Amino acid sequence: KNKPPPKQVSIEEGNNTSKSPSKPTAATARKLDPELSATTTTAPSVLDTVLMKIQPFFVKLQESTEKMDRMMEQQALQENQTPSTTGTPNMIPMGSTNLPAANGHYDARTIERNGPAPPTLPTQTPPAVITPTRPTTYQGPIPTYQQDGSKGDSDKIHEIEITSVEIDKAMMPEAMTKNAEINGTYDRADDIAALPGKTSPGGGDSESGSGVSEDVLTRLAETLGSDNSKITMLDSGYGRRNRHGLGLITSEDTLLDAYKQCYKKEEVLFKNYRFRMMHYLGRLGYTSSFIDDYLERGLLPRIIRESFLNYTALIGKIMFKWNATADPWEDSEALVILKVHSSNLLDIRTNCNSKKMLLLQNYAYLRDAKKKGFVNDTITEKNFERQDRRNQRLRDELEAVKAIKGGPKEGRGNPHKDQDPSPKKCSHCKNRDLHIAAGLEHIKTVCPLKDQAGSWAKAAAGKVAAKYSNDNKGEKTRPMEEVIKEVSESWAKS
């Protein structure tokens, strides 16, 4: 009488138990025996606790996905696009037994063991990016034939402030307004002042230096956030000292090598620059004919070409000064010019905050330096100091030679040891003894024979000097005029 009624097994449970017979669990026993279920109380399982904790998360996820669907539909309507028909399926409520068949079937016990089915996330196609319309013909803000009228003003290029917003409009092609595209165009330009080293992006080594003060992460974020989603080439090594071209010249041999390398690389340099701009601007939607016009008449390619001409002219000036004199390299005017301009260009490189400012400031500096013949007050002052050092060195060498050889030797072979060692002679009579006997200076204006013919004065000057000295021995004082007259008469008779 006290035995429980026979256990009745459902079809589904029978199917499960037939495959793998096992001992019924406590939960199944409680369901089958109402008395046991009423008298036995157990704590919720770990799975039930986890399901209760994650249920709010699924509710919030469903709300956020529905909100995102509504926003995407509104955006699609505004852009005249067909809204996506892919909806978000309703989340499966906790403890529900009416479940869709996904990979087989779900039943109440499956829900109890494994929890609800995972939610299906919405799949939305991102809206198409509308590429701005690019012009097909380059107009250019500055005519090709126009010269730069800002020479002498290092803060301007073609009367435009290099720190103003207008400089980007003048340098860039039309319809280029995004910072990521503008920075990418500057980054692909060649750093001429790095010659004879690498001038294009990607050069340099791990040597530390400034020039990376601009936030590269910000630049990368701007690039990734742009509409075209094209990653620009960030040239973050522009400020390193190993990119300083004049710093590679340390001797007369490296000067000659740099001079040759600059002219050797000219064709390859501008050809590679054209390829880079063709590839980059073509990806931005510009036509090949437009890019050709821009490379020919655009302001940025133009200042790159002029920077190359001015930079090679500077190296040519240094070569000319070196070949014009026989001075040693360490004390030559060529080294003075090299050091001054190298120091100024290095200051620009290590203190600018972007590749753009490096290109513009280098162009302005080389433009103004060429206008002055690559000579400035600093170079002039250093040349004066160099000349003073040379003169002092020559004086020291002369004193050293005198100390070794001594002064003029006295005695035999030096009859004028007590006389004035000055080599001066009268230009009329060419006789020093006559002027010494008369006590006169060795100039024509006071020469005793200045009224006589030059040929006779040169021939008779010795006789006049000897007779005047003999006639004036002791207390005798005979005028020079009488002596000259007597010698002249006797000369005429003979």
Structure notes:
It is a single chain. By secondary structure, this protein is mainly α. It is 52% helix and 1% strand. The chain has helices at residues 11-19, 26-32, 34-39, 46-78, 108-114, 166-171, 179-187, 216-224, 252-264, 266-283, 288-297, 299-324, 333-351, 355-371, 377-405, 432-438, 454-471, 480-493; strands at residues 156-157, 160-161. A two-stranded antiparallel ribbon has the order 1-2. The N and C termini lie far apart (192 Å). Residues 9-21, 36-40, 81-106 and 202-232 have low confidence and may be disordered. Residues 13-25, 75-100, 133-149 have a biased composition (Polar residues). Residues 1-44, 69-155, 193-213, 400-427 are annotated as: Disordered. Residues 400-423 have a biased composition (Basic and acidic residues). Residues 116-125 have a biased composition (Pro residues).
List the keywords:
two-stranded antiparallel ribbon, 494 residues, mainly alpha, 4 domains, 18 helices
Question: What's this, in brief?
Answer:
Helices cover 52% and strands 1% of the residues.
Unreliable residue runs: 9-21, 36-40, 81-106, 202-232
SS strand fraction: under 5%
C-alpha-based Rg, rounded: 51 Å
Work out the count of structural domains: 4
Please give the count of helices: 18
How many DSSP-defined strands?
2
Quote the distance from N terminus to C terminus: 192 Å
Mean pLDDT: 75
Largest sheet: 2 strands, antiparallel
Q: Going across the major beta sheet, what is the strand order?
A: 1-2
Order of H and E elements = HHHHHEEHHHHHHHHHHHHH
Oligomer: single chain
Structural class: mainly alpha
- Percent of residues in helices: 40-55%
Q: Describe the global form.
A: elongated
Region (Disordered): 1-44, 69-155, 193-213, 400-427
Biased composition (Basic and acidic residues): 400-423
Biased composition (Pro residues): 116-125
Biased composition (Polar residues): 13-25, 75-100, 133-149
